Amino acid sequence: MTEKTALILLGCPQVPVQTSMALYLVHGLKEHGIRPVIAGTVAARKLMEIADPGRHYLEEMADLDDTIDEITGKQRDFDLCFVFIHNDSGVAYAGTMSYISQARVYALLFGEHAEDLAKEIEFPCEVVAAKAVHNPMPLKRKLDEVMQWAAVSKR
Amino acid sequence: MGGCLEALKPEILFSQASFKEARDYIKTNIREYHEVEPGYKIFDVHIIGVPPLYVGVEGEDLVFPYTKPCHGTFVVKVAGGEETARLRARKK
User: Fold this and answer.
1) Cβ atoms B6, B71 nearer than 8 A
2) CB distance from B15 to chain A under 8 Å?
3) Is any Cβ of chain A less than 8 angstroms from the Cβ of B38?
4) Domain range holding A39?
5) Does A91 sit within 8 Å of B69, measured CB to CB?
6) Is A42 touching B (CB cutoff 8 A)?
7) Which of A5, A31, A35, B40 is deepest in the core (most CB within 10 A)?
């Protein structure tokens, strides 16, 4: 049986909860035997790398553009894709992933305008939204429910 | 701007917009435009967004949306070169 993989697509790291929630998600996925690959801007990835110097959680880190290039070029794809969203660009990236990838896409919306941004999503994906800026707990609670489900679901 | 786009010496026509505003800008201001799928590549740049996405042709130039994770979507104009013919040759 081939190993299940998940792409974690980080947005702009402007909102504090993103790095913490992404590390938490990586941990949860690995606990379920799913191999996480993290793609994002240089700053978003550096925040993750600095927070995990011993590489207890992080495995593969990838450039955002390179990852999109590989997926559109049919060189690579994932079983699951989690897109962190707190602005319009995040919605645009999630919409792109929903179109180019065969993965089941999860839109993780957070920040001050999470609920409003969720209304903008009109493409196939699972929406997880919580107004979380500094305190990750509202998003963590919702993500816990989704991760249980994601771990057992097929594509 | 990203490294790949910067090499194309883009003219920025509209900045820090939403992807929907960028779509409307192209549709309203560029007479010839073609619908492309998310991830469509122009030179080394992928078009990011939710369908419908448009790429415009203005003389020798291409006009398209360019999304940055931290700064929203820009509408940029670059010399089209062979990409214009490829765009026009796509099946409708």
Assistant:
1) no
2) no
3) yes
4) 4-152
5) no
6) no
7) B40
